[in-house]
Amino acid sequence: MRCLKVYLERLGYRYLDKQDVYGMAGFAIMLAVESLYDLSLLNCRPSVVAAAILYAERRLRGAVPFWPSMLSKMTGYHDMSTPELVRAFGLVMRDREAKRTSV
Fold first, then answer.
1. How many CB atoms lie within 10 A of CB 86?
2. Residue 89 host element (H or E)
3. Full-prediction pTM beyond 0.90?
């Protein structure tokens, strides 16, 4: 959660009030909370999990590009070029799909 918070702060969310933050980043926060229950993600570095959550959130929201150069520069991860990021993204999406089909 700390890494996600840092990424969101660097994207400018710290200057918004609480309601605006949840309006703009609520889906990423929801994915992060859901990911806390996945023990498989404990094998990934927190920064990778946070990056995977941002990538998943942008992809599910339809933001194009999914991983702009600004996020590559900020995180150090380049558009799914890291096997650990690919794995974490797959786990985040799997958790999201499982949650969606269980409802």
1. 14
2. helix 83-102
3. no
